[in-house]
Design a protein that fits this description.
Blueprint lengths: L2 H30 L17 E8 L17 E2 L6 E6 L2 E6 L2 E5 L5 E7 L4 E7 L2 E7 L14 E7 L5 E8 L6 E7 L4 E8 L2 E7 L6 E5 L16 E5 L2 E5 L5 E7 L2 E6 L5 E5 L2 E9 L7 E8 L4 E5 L11 H5 L3 E2 L4 E6 L2 E6 L7 H6 L4 H7 L3 E6 L4 E6 L2 E6 L2 E6 H6 L5 H4 E4 L3 E6 L7 E6 L14 H10 L5 E2 L2 E6 L2 E6 L2 E6 L2 E7 L5 E4 L3 E4 L4 E4 L2 E6 L4 E5 L5 E6 L5 E5 L2 E5 L3 E5 L5 E6 L3 E2 L5 E7 L4 E4 L4 E6 L2 E6 L4 E6 L11 E5 L2 E5 L3 E6 L4 E6 L19 E4 L4 E6 L2 E6 L4 E7 L4 E2 L3 E3 L2 E7 L4 H4 L12 E8 L5 E7 L4 E6 L5 E8 L1
Parallel strand pairs: 11-15, 30-66, 31-68, 33-39
Antiparallel strand pairs: 1-6, 2-7, 3-4, 4-5, 5-6, 7-8, 8-9, 9-10, 11-12, 12-13, 13-14, 16-17, 17-18, 18-19, 20-21, 21-22, 23-24, 24-25, 25-26, 27-28, 28-29, 29-30, 32-49, 34-35, 35-36, 36-37, 38-39, 40-41, 41-42, 42-43, 44-45, 45-46, 46-47, 48-53, 50-51, 51-52, 52-53, 54-55, 55-56, 56-57, ...
Amino acid sequence: MKPQSRMLIIITFVVLSFLTIVFFYFHGMFEDNPPIVERTSTETTTIADQTSTSAEIQSPSPAVNTDWKPLEGEFMADSKDARVLWKHEQAMIYVQNLQLYYTTDGTNKQLIYEWKTPLPLEAWLNGDYLLIGAQLTEDNAQDDVSSASGAWLAIRIEPAPVVIEDTNLFFGPHEVLSIRLTEEPRLFLLKVRNGSGFSEEAFDPSHDGWETINRGTMDASAPETSGTTPDLHVLTNNRVFLLPEGPTVYSFLDEGSSIVYFKDPHYLVRRYDGYELLQVKRIPFLEDTPQLIGQFRNQAGEEFMSFLNYELSPLPVEPRLWQEEWQAFNYRTFTHVAPDKLEILQYEDEIPSDREAEASAESVTAVTTKYPPKFTQFPTNGLTWIASRGSLVEYEDNGRIISLSWPDIINTEEAELESIRSSPLQNFTIKNENRKPYTTFSQSILEWRFEEDNTNAAVPQELRDAIDQLYREEDYSYAKTFRKIGTTWFVLIDRHFYQYQSGALTEIGELPVTVTVKIGEAAGGIGARDFMRWQGSWIVTDTEASRVLKLNDKLEITAVIYIPTPYKLTLKGQQLQIASTGLTWIVDQNLNRINVKSQGYQSTAKLSKVDYPNFHEQEWYYDEKSGITWYYLLGSLYQVQEKKKQYRSFYLSENENMQAHVRIIPYQDEVIVLLDRRLERFDRQGKRLGTIAFPRSSPDGIYDRTTQGENSYILDSSSDNLYLLQGYRILKIHLGSESVTTLFRQNYADLGELSMVDGKLYFLLHNNQNDRYSHNQDNPDGNKSYVTEVIQIDLHTQAVQRSITEGYYEAMTIDVDTNNQPMFVLKSYN
């Protein structure tokens, strides 16, 4: 081959090789950096777990159009074309090939986030924050996110992009109906489909996670939308309330509603439908964090005020709250220290929320007119104000320091200044002891059978199963009375009356009987103990109302007889015998009384003795005078005559407050059986003498509000009075006249056990019941102080005198010093 030909071949080979290299180089550049477009058509995708990462990638970034604007609509996460979501000069954030990138110069790019599988995405930009939603499908849902429809990602762009939120929610971009953006603060407010209705969800980049701002529209129909792209609107019609105490409140007007936002004293973003927020004030609380109260106007032009919480409670506008320095005792009660008086403004607890008022078609004017505020004043003329600290207001009175407590003033029934002013406690010592464990004791009693069911025959399991399907018992056990009449079962569940036949449970109706609820660790019903069918009518013992009813087939009352605690019906020929407390009543078919006789005794010859280990103090008593052993066991009172080998028992019912215990008290020629709502009187031979009832009142110290002195009593033989602590009150029960009066009442206070010295009644009082739970908690700032009051009531004049000392004490004993004055020993427990 000629040298020229050989050289030509070599040159040709080099040129072709060079062209091949150039071709593949530019082809690779095109694959890495396709042209930027705004959107592509949606593709069917599947979902996998998303991963978040941060890494520097040294490869070219896409070219940027100089006329860029925010991307709108849906695009795919695996788009080959770069989807730019944010751009500033040469810096940009974009999605390409399942990856979210950031570049500062168009050359180097950083991986912010990566999706593992293709997903439909939508993105919204609000200032320096970018919100990206990915639509999930049922085919791709994982077990731990099976209820999620959307995967949401939030990016803070400045100073450098970082993922601040990555979560799955019940909605995705396809469920978004509209979006509202706010600029100060930066908020994303999304109205989304929620079941058959909709709700509103807010994402606040400065807060942790998402918040529901409107929960009241779950049952409302979701509005129709004209297209697939959610309506986007920037809210600019806003008000900013700069409070002098520090917190800033933002209110955004949108479609006739206010979206209210603040972060102090607590976080809140909430839509108040149909209301415009006019003004805001910070209200200090006596013993709690200050709260914000707002004045609103609805679309009818009606104005009211309400604390800014998740629901509004329309309170009549009181200008003085806005003009003067008032403090809140709670959300319904406000206090004010004026130069010559103490003032209280109280609203009713029953004021409905705005939603409740709307549901009952009541206007704001109707609600505020129905529940006007109550003003109370306590003159302080002659007293010199010293200081206010928490709930205490201190004055000087002729050189003496006295204290007035707002809880005492507000919660004491028929309060007068002389009965609520406190002086420093004198003549006392303090002891700290280990708390003694609560103990019960054992006694030998007649063998007894636990009543699992109140029934006259064995209850079939299929009947139990049918009842359990209707009445599932968790924290409440129903009062159930079973009776088999012929071949048919009937059951009374609280007031609901059923027939069970051929495997079917059919409700007959509701009986007009009383059901008392007993409350302890759980709650339970106490109801009618017996019923029967007699001559075409129903006969029912309305045990808790102390009466027997005759009902027709419509369950209407046709006859009634009042009998103390009737509990058992027995048919004897044409007469009906009714067992009650120590008595047997005999009536005819119209419940007319024929005779009343004392309940008979039964032989104990065939009954053995057993030990019962769970008697509480005073539930068992042996009377040496009569030889009768008395004891109370699971609702029944037993009278046992050991020498005569006979006994009788009858049903008494149970305490409403299960933390109280039945007490058997010998008193002169009587034996008193004391329940928490009535007492039964017997002579020493066991004959019933009568009943004195004192039903529990409302509000009541019960369940976790049970006072520490509950069921404490003093029996004063010199005056024939029994003083009983029941809930928040002390009752004076005169045994001679059988009258019951309230000697003292202070609601929501913790009252201690009663003591009596020299004609005066004493007990401890804590005016904040929560102190019993909080006094042992850490108090590093010392911002919570505790006080204990000693209350003295002169039983002759009924005058109340209060003494106060700092600290929390749970018990008190009283001695007498050398001057015959009471000396108090206050006890705290480890």
